[in-house]
């Protein structure tokens, strides 16, 4: 059973990676002057939207955490609305942290916010899909030994990798190379994306290697 | 010999400071000089002899100009004259450049672009060594041969008005002078009027030959508000009108006379960067205009050419030849040919030959293998063809061929001069490798020793065995002998000068014994550690699995910072690294706090979740969801109000990292430092501009009150009163020198140096420190409780805070407030309840200290050192106190954090008796790792393009920091001793 789970996970992750690759290649066919660096904001929007949609669709198809009790439509709508609020709040929170890290407060607000949206897409949206708008579950998953399925492990690894990627992505900014990718927030968002992609690749491998050690408590 | 870890750390750092000093001495090259020769100055060389006949022209050529006026405008950038600003604000000068009889150049100044070295370069024609910047404050009389000396010796009367640096450099040379001081940077009108007021009288008089004017106003405007300030335009217009006045007066004098024409030189000593500071090597700082105006020149005709790029050192030789003076001996400049172009061919060749002869003689004395130098060969070639030309000339040949041949010789000469000059300036960048290697070896050995003794030094005893037995072993004697032999061989075969070889043999042998002794100790430590490991399990480094994420972050941060030092941009923007690390540290602390408070109550929570539907099991939190955590915490609080856990403490602990993060963001925008973003507007500039004086006064007053509130908590009553009076004194000092104002004295204009006020504060600083020391001594002698000792330490700390409040620039007082606030909050709510161990707390203190170093507005360039701190409360420049005060003001951030660390650790001794020792050891280790790595990096990068502008200033900063840290560690050791003795009793 575990191996099939891992295969499902791997395929889901490969689809995510594929969608990211598509967002860098495909828009240039439709949009004039589109390039990853030149029109970075457009790319940020497209990438966030695509990854978000793919994640939601994948979640609906694969449905890794089938909920036990059936819920009414009103409950579902409430859940959806709460998810939206959570997502927005996480964007704001990320924005705040990025500003605290030294991003300009007023100028290039849009860039900073879109970068925050991208980060939220990579981390919070995953959590929302997988765990629902329930912070206490999130806290459980992100604490030590809190993962209850390989999906939780995958979530941990990809979120960590995205955040660490964004963190590392800030390092080239002070270098005086005057490259187009050193402009705020390109290096950070590229770092986050690369971190996310490598997390997506790394998580199934890691789970596969440690499949003997991973024992999950039942709910 | 048993040593406490604090004692080991302190002695190691002292040795390391010695090693770093030796390295620095070897790294900064001694300037190229002619050996001083006794007796009369050598006669000028005759014209090169043509084969067969001899020329009898042995005297110096006659002068070109009679009188010379040099107008030196401090911080005049090339685009202020040649750019759009020049066209707009300096119409007369622009017209002179375009149509008048003038030659314009862009003179490139070599870094460090600071006034005194630039004046030296302009007058001696030599490039002063980098070490001159350190002596910039001091500026003793110039001891090298220079233009002013030569002019004086030739009986010329020199008059000087302007920056008093000149007066200090040339104390006896001026017939008449009036020095203005660059002490009050905020004054940019008076300082120039003090120069201009003499102008009318002097221009009417006939009794002078050389007039030098040095205007400081533009530089002050640059420091105040940068090159794009609205104040620049009127200042440039003022300068333009001065140039016009001088030029018209010179022209009117000239009409009546048949004698030689006068010369007007307009130049800048250095430019200014985009922020308005200088000292580095950005294009704006390096490029200065050089304008020579004289009716002797031909009128400009034809299309406007962009001004030619020359070296600043070229002016000295050009002026010397133009005034008929001998070229100063150490000049490496080359003649600006356009200036002498209207002379006859013979005279032009004569000038070039004189210049070349002087350069080649300088080369002969400084380079052992000078004959192989391409410049020297070219010069010999040119000399030969010059001889041929003379032969033809003396034969009476006046045909076209003679002119063509002359042109060819001129070309040859120019080529030779260029090569000679560049190879001489390269000579200045010769490193004294032997001293550097010895210094590096010492620094590395100390680092190795510290690293090897880490496990034992951080054990619970904080004591370790330093084996002294190998000092008597055969290996030690053999090493000593071998190193002595190497020393003798190296020193006898050395071609260039070497500092370590010039030391007396006793000192050299002492250093050699130190090196080999350290090596032996390290070897025996390695042997103990690896060959016969007795307690392998006690090694904390071995049990890596027990490392938390926090330890990983600390380690990664340290390694990351050290490795970033290899890139010039990261050295320039080092503050970014530290801000980034401190931010991450705060977030990690937040996570730690959450984990601490929530893991501890896991059981309670499980009970809770049973009672409250919808709440699931909770174990910990991630740091990225702090908002949620606080919400969650609200939930908890509502339910568990009955619990008698210190809820407010927990709440404060959760809030602390966020308060610190927000304050760090504020501080970051207070002073923009570094290079790339330094021109961004910041709060500091906004506050210091003259129209925001009221805001600055309010801020300073509030900050001082806050400082008092934060500091007085732990002081005794006497020092509380002293502190309050001292802080009042600080405010009145700032009001006296005109930085801030009292609300009741809005329109007072009298600005003084505030000496009385500053000394008033000094008395209280000394008083508070004295009470603190008295308490410390009492606690040591009477072995009283820890409380007396803590009060004593805190009083010393508050004395230093008061001193920092006096010395820091008024807009930096909030930095001091936030420093105290962070320390108080983080100590009370984070470190104490979470029981971090001494090593972790030390590393955090070090990081915060580094961040505060940059929050103060410091950077890794020399330009950002606030020299005015060295003059607070002093009538004149006094070397020792000025150096001490400047050093304290610059490093007040790291120092205050270090002393606070000592206060914290010694209040923690009841929990961990070895805390002070551990802290001291970690502090020493943290300092010695970057220094050792940086020294190796700089040695490897010594031919890097930015070595002088970026890496060397940083090296100086590192060296000074090691020295200061060594002092701090000695203080730690002294405190540690007291404590241990009491424990043993």
TrEMBL record, chain A:
Keywords per UniProt: Endoplasmic reticulum, GPI-anchor biosynthesis, Membrane, Transmembrane, Transmembrane helix
Subcellular localization, as worded in the UniProt entry: Endoplasmic reticulum membrane
UniProt signal peptide: none
One BP term from GO: GPI anchor biosynthetic process
Annotated TM spans: 9-29, 41-62, 83-106, 112-132, 153-171, 183-209
Entry keyword annotation includes Transcription regulation: no
GO cellular component term of the entry, any: endoplasmic reticulum membrane
Pathway recorded for this protein: Glycolipid biosynthesis; glycosylphosphatidylinositol-anchor biosynthesis
Membrane topology, record value: Multi-pass membrane protein
Main location: endoplasmic reticulum
Xref: InterPro entries: GPI_biosynthesis_protein_Pig-F
Protein name: Phosphatidylinositol glycan anchor biosynthesis class F
Organism ancestry: Eukaryota, Metazoa, Chordata, Craniata, Vertebrata
The gene coding this protein: PIGF
Automatic annotation (TrEMBL), chain B:
Location of the GPI ethanolamine phosphate transferase 2 C-terminal domain: 647-958
Gene Ontology cellular-component terms listed: endoplasmic reticulum membrane
Membrane-spanning residues: 433-454, 466-490, 502-526, 694-711, 717-733, 754-772, 880-903, 924-943, 955-975
Swiss-Prot/TrEMBL keywords: Endoplasmic reticulum, Glycoprotein, GPI-anchor biosynthesis, Membrane, Transferase, Transmembrane, Transmembrane helix
UniProt membrane topology term: Multi-pass membrane protein
Molecular-function GO terms, alphabetical: CP2 mannose-ethanolamine phosphotransferase activity
Predominant localisation class: endoplasmic reticulum
Subcellular location: Endoplasmic reticulum membrane
Gene3D superfamilies, per the entry: Alkaline Phosphatase, subunit A
Pathway(s) per entry: Glycolipid biosynthesis; glycosylphosphatidylinositol-anchor biosynthesis
This protein's record includes keyword Endoplasmic reticulum: yes
Family note: Belongs to the PIGG/PIGN/PIGO family. PIGG subfamily.
Name under which the protein is recorded: GPI ethanolamine phosphate transferase 2 C-terminal domain-containing protein
Name of the gene encoding the protein in the UniProt record: pigg
């Amino acid at each position: 059973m575990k191996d099939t789970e891992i295969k499902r996970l791997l395929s889901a992750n490969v689809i995510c990676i594929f969608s990211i690759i598509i967002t860098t290649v495909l828009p240039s066919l439709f949009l004039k002057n589109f390039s990853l660096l030149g029109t970075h904001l457009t790319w940020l929007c497209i990438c966030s939207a695509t990854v978000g949609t793919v994640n939601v669709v994948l979640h609906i198809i694969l449905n890794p955490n089938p909920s036990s009790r059936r819920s009414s439509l009103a409950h579902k709508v409430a859940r959806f609305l709460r998810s939206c609020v959570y997502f927005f709040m996480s964007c704001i929170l990320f924005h705040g942290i990025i500003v605290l890290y030294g991003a300009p407060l007023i100028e290039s607000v849009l860039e900073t916010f879109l970068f925050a949206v991208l980060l939220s897409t990579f981390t919070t949206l995953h959590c929302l899909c997988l765990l629902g708008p329930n912070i206490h579950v999130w806290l459980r998953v992100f604490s030590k030994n809190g993962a209850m399925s390989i999906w939780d492990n995958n979530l941990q690894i990809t979120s960590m990798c995205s955040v660490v990627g964004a963190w590392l992505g800030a390092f080239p900014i002070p270098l005086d190379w005057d490259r187009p990718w050193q402009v705020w927030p390109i290096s950070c968002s590229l770092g986050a994306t690369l971190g996310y992609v490598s997390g997506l690749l790394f998580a199934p491998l890691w789970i596969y290697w440690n499949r003997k050690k991973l024992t999950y408590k039942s709910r | 010999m048993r040593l406490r870890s604090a004692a080991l750390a302190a002695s190691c750092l002292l040795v390391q400071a010695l090693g770093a000093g030796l390295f620095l001495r070897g790294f900064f090259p001694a300037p190229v000089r002619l050996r001083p020769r006794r007796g009369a100055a050598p006669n000028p060389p005759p014209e090169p002899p043509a084969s067969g006949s001899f020329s009898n022209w042995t005297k110096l050529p006659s002068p070109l100009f009679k009188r010379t006026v040099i107008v030196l405008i401090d911080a005049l950038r090339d685009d202020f004259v040649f750019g759009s600003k020049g066209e707009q604000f300096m119409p007369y000068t622009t017209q002179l450049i375009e149509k008048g009889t003038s030659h314009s150049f862009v003179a490139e100044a070599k870094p460090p672009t600071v006034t005194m070295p630039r004046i030296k370069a302009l007058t001696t024609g030599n490039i002063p060594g980098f070490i001159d910047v350190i002596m910039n404050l001091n500026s003793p009389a110039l001891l090298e041969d220079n233009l002013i000396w030569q002019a004086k010796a030739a009986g010329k009367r020199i008059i000087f008005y302007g920056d008093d640096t000149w007066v200090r450099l040339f104390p006896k040379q001026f017939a008449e002078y009036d020095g203005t001081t660059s002490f009050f940077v905020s004054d940019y009108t008076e300082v120039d009027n003090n120069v201009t007021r003499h102008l009318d009288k002097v221009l009417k008089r006939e009794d002078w030959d050389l007039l030098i004017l040095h205007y400081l106003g533009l530089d002050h405007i640059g420091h105040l508000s940068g090159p794009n300030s609205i104040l620049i335009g009127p200042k440039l217009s003022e300068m333009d009108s001065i140039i016009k006045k001088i030029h018209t007066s010179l022209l009117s004098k000239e009409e009546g006379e048949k004698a030689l024409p006068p010369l007007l030189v307009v130049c800048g000593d250095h430019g200014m960067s985009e922020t308005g500071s200088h000292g580095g090597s950005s294009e704006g700082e390096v490029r200065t205009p050089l304008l020579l105006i004289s009716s002797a020149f031909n009128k400009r005709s034809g299309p406007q050419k962009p001004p030619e790029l020359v070296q600043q050192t070229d002016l000295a030789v050009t002026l010397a030849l133009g005034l008929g003076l001998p070229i100063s001996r150490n000049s490496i400049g080359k003649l600006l040919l356009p200036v002498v172009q209207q002379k006859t061919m013979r005279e032009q060749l004569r000038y070039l030959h004189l210049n070349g002869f002087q350069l080649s003689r300088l080369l002969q004395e400084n380079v052992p293998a000078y004959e192989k130098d391409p410049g020297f060969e070219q010069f010999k070639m040119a000399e030969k063809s010059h001889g041929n030309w003379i032969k033809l000339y003396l034969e009476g040949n006046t045909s076209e061929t003679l002119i063509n041949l002359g042109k060819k010789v001129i070309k040859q000469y120019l080529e030779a001069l260029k090569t000679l000059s560049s190879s001489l300036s390269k000579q200045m960048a010769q490193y004294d490798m032997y001293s550097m290697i010895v210094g590096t070896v010492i620094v590395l050995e100390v680092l190795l020793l510290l690293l090897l003794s880490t496990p034992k030094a951080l054990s619970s005893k904080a004591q370790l065995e330093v084996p002294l037995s190998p000092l008597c072993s055969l290996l030690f004697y053999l090493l000593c002998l071998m190193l002595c032999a190497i020393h003798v061989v190296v020193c006898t075969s050395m071609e260039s000068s070497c500092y370590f070889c010039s030391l007396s043999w006793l000192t050299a042998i002492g250093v050699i014994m130190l090196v080999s002794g350290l090596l032996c100790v390290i070897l025996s430590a390695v042997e103990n550690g690896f060959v016969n490991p007795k307690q392998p399990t006690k090694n904390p480094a071995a049990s890596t699995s027990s490392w938390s994420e926090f330890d990983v972050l600390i380690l990664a941060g340290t390694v990351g910072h050290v490795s970033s030092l290899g890139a010039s941009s990261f050295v320039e923007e080092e503050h970014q690294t530290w801000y980034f690390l401190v931010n991450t540290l705060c977030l990690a602390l937040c996570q730690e706090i959450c984990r601490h408070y929530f893991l501890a109550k896991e059981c309670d929570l499980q009970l809770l979740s049973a009672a409250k539907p919808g709440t699931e099991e909770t174990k910990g939190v991630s740091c990225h969801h702090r908002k949620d955590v606080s919400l969650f915490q609200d939930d908890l609080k509502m339910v568990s109000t009955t619990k008698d856990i210190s809820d407010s403490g927990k709440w404060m602990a959760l809030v602390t990292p966020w308060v610190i993060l927000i304050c760090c963001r504020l501080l970051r925008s207070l002073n923009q430092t570094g290079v790339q973003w330094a021109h961004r507007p910041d709060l500091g500039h906004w506050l210091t501009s003259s129209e925001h004086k009221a805001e600055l006064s309010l801020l300073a007053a509030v900050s001082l009150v806050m400082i008092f509130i934060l500091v007085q908590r732990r002081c005794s009553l006497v020092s509380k009163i002293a502190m309050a009076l001292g802080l009042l004194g600080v405010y009145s000092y700032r009001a006296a020198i005109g930085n801030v104002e009292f609300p009741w004295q809005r329109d007072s204009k009298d600005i003084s140096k505030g000496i009385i006020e500053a000394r008033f504060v000094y008395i209280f600083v000394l008083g508070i420190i004295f009470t603190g020391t008295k308490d410390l001594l009492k606690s040591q002698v009477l072995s009283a409780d820890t409380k007396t000792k803590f009060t004593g330490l805190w009083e010393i700390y508050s004395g230093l805070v008061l001193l920092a409040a006096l010395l820091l620039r008024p807009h930096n007082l909030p930095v001091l407030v936030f420093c105290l606030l962070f320390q108080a909050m983080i100590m009370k709510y984070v470190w104490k309840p979470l029981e971090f161990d001494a090593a972790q707390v030390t590393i955090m203190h070090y990081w915060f200290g580094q961040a505060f170093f940059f929050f103060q507005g410091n950077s890794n360039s020399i330009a950002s050192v606030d020299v005015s701190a060295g003059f607070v409360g002093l009538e004149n420049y006094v070397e020792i106190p000025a150096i001490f005060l400047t050093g304290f003001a610059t490093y007040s951030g790291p120092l205050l954090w270090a002393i606070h660390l000592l206060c914290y650790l010694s209040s923690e001794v009841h929990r961990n008796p070895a805390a002070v020792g551990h802290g001291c050891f970690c502090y020493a280790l943290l300092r010695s790792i970057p220094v050792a790595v940086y020294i190796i990096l700089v040695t490897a990068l010594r031919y890097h393009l930015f070595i002088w502008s970026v890496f060397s200033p940083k090296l100086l900063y590192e060296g000074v920091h090691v020295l200061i840290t060594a002092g701090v560690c000695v203080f730690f050791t002294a405190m540690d001793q007291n404590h241990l003795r009491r424990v043993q009793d």
